[in-house]
Specification:
Elements lengths: L11 H18 L21 H18 L6
Helix pairs in contact: 1-2
């Protein structure tokens, strides 16, 4: 019953885009109850994002998942 929505090289902005463009709806339809998230490391290469910016992106993702999936554990 697990689904893998990970894509190599993903950045926080990519996950947010997918959540806003169908992924969150698909997760609701499949009644996702557990989300394991590993994101943010690809935002840190090359110094293009500060630690605070990366944390903001991760927080935005977890907030989106928590509010959109109700009782799911993130």
């Amino acid at each position: 019953g697990a689904a893998n929505a990970g894509i190599g090289g993903d950045r926080t902005e990519h996950v947010l885009w997918r959540l806003d463009h169908g992924l969150l709806d698909a997760m609701r339809k499949s009644r996702t109850r557990l989300v394991v998230l590993m994101i943010g490391t690809n935002n840190s290469n090359g110094g293009d994002h500060s630690a605070a910016e990366i944390a903001e992106g991760v927080t935005a993702i977890t907030d989106r998942l928590s509010s959109g999936l109700g009782d799911a554990k993130v």
